[in-house]
Design a protein that fits this description.
The structure is a homodimer. The first copy, chain A, has a six-stranded antiparallel barrel. Chain A has two helices and nine strands; from the N terminus they run βββββββββαα. Chain A has a single domain, classed as YaeB-like (Elongation Factor Tu (Ef-tu), domain 3). The relative contact order of chain A is 0.33. Chain A is globular and about 45 Å long. By secondary structure, chain A is mainly beta. Chains A and B meet through β1, β4, β6, β7 and β9 of A and β1, β4, β6, β7 and β9 of B. β1 of chain A pairs antiparallel with β1 of chain B.
Chain lengths: 158, 158
């Protein structure tokens, strides 16, 4: 067992699970803020040089776990670890967002696909040398960019 | 507060922090296994179609937090959220690895940059449509691919 504590909160215009974009790519123009607890502000030093960051956060409105889920972009049940569904063990979410500005304890980000009030667990820089994947295959995920961009959440993961 | 529980354990040839590759790119040929607890095996369905997965894991041998650290690829202190150092609040690590095979509760992966026995918290598919970053800047991180590949860990994060 490992206890985790939020380092801050994510502010976004998304007030409810329904109608939320399902991934940052569907929220490309959506701006939000990371409000970092004062005790951690020193850890933000040097972050401004990065264009993108990973956010780790808690799927705080989803507490049940299901091992098979029907993803938004599909019509068949898939193993939860082959999806980005919140119904996973440990309920930790991962998004890559664009970094816009840092002022004190407030980090402005773009491409926000999480609910307002989401507990923030970590910020990590996206480093192309570490994280760049040149050629990948994406199994069941066959949707077009356009479909991902336009798809909105519904109540299935409440 | 949010309690998290491992879904399994990561097996790797790296027995100690010293001399470990610092990122998957420095461990490109290193094979390891995710040994997933039996109760979660059903969640692995459909994962085999993906070439790459994100692993979330616990930096279990590092329990202290420092807000400024000197990263392996640098010689100046940087804010911990601008680094991938384990000395971060919540001590959660993130790596992208290549998926090789799944047999029962055992997932063979390539590009393992974590210690043997690391508690596994989550597996997420890498989906180029969600996660691909086309142009990014990486702040202080100026090392060449060759330097990242050859760099090895030391005792600083013990």
């Amino acid at each position: 067992m490992h206890e985790i504590h939020p380092i801050g909160v994510i502010r976004s215009p998304h007030q409810s699970i329904e109608s939320m974009p399902i991934q940052p790519k569907g929220a490309a123009e959506v701006t939000g803020q990371l409000v970092v607890e004062e005790q951690y502000v020193e850890g933000l030093k040097d972050l401004e040089g990065f264009s993108h960051v990973y956010l780790l956060y808690s799927f705080h409105q989803t507490r049940r776990t299901e091992l098979q889920v029907i993803p938004f972009m599909d019509d068949q049940p898939r193993g939860v670890f082959a999806t980005r569904s919140p119904l996973r063990p440990n309920h930790i979410g991962l998004s890559i967002v664009r970094l816009q500005a840092i002022e004190g304890n407030c980090v402005t980000i773009q491409g926000v696909d999480v609910l307002d009030g989401t507990p923030l667990l970590d910020i990590k820089p996206y480093i192309a040398k570490f994280d760049g994947v040149e050629a990948s295959t994406s199994g069941w995920m066959q949707a077009s960019d356009e479909e991902v961009k336009n798809k909105r959440s519904d109540e299935r993961f409440k």
